[in-house]
């Protein structure tokens, strides 16, 4: 149901004012800064979207996803036993199985995300987009990052 989208209103002047206020906020210091930075790492999708990706490239990425912060730094922060990982590993659909298998073998539960639907341009027929999405999910992707048609967005054709 997309009826709600036509009712969305953004108060642009209010958004701009709020963005300007955010710029003036003081920065976080000390232990709080480290905590915020560690939290930010857990929200990152570690991504490789290179046309020449190989299984070994994806394996290295998965290792980095499981160990995004150097162990000595985590020990210094007394965070070495907290299991800090990135939020997901993101790859093209053809590399999803490589990532899923590598992460499973490493004994971690980091989700695999995949770009689909004609990434990066979105200029792919709908049937091809849906097939690509289905395949990525079949290969084990738990998140799909979809490129929507910019033409449809720019012309307000949300349906």
Automatic annotation (TrEMBL):
Q: Which GO terms describe its biological process?
A: carbohydrate catabolic process; deoxyribonucleotide catabolic process; deoxyribose phosphate catabolic process
UniProt cross-references to InterPro entries, sorted A to Z:
Aldolase_TIM, DeoC
Q: What are the EC numbers?
A: 4.1.2.4
Task: List the catalysed reactions.
Answer: 2-deoxy-D-ribose 5-phosphate = D-glyceraldehyde 3-phosphate + acetaldehyde
For this UniProt record, give its keywords in alphabetical order, as a comma-separated list: Lyase, Schiff base
Matching PANTHER family, A to Z? DEOXYRIBOSE-PHOSPHATE ALDOLASE
Name it: deoxyribose-phosphate aldolase
Record gene name: Dera
């Amino acid at each position: 149901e997309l009826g709600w989208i036509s009712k969305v209103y953004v108060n642009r002047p209010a958004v701009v004012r709020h963005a300007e206020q955010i710029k003036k906020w003081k920065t976080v210091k000390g232990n709080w800064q480290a905590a915020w930075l560690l939290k930010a790492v857990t929200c990152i999708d570690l991504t490789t979207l290179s046309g020449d990706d190989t299984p070994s490239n994806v394996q290295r990425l998965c290792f980095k996803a499981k160990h995004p912060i150097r162990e000595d730094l985590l020990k210094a922060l007394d965070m070495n036993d907290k299991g800090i990982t990135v939020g997901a590993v993101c790859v093209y659909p053809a590399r999803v199985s490589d990532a899923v298998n590598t992460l499973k073998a490493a004994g971690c539960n980091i989700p695999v995300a995949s770009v689909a639907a004609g990434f990066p341009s979105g200029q792919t027929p709908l049937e091809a987009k849906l097939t690509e999405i289905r395949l990525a999910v079949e290969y084990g992707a738990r998140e799909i990052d979809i490129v929507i048609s910019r033409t449809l967005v720019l012309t307000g054709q949300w349906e």
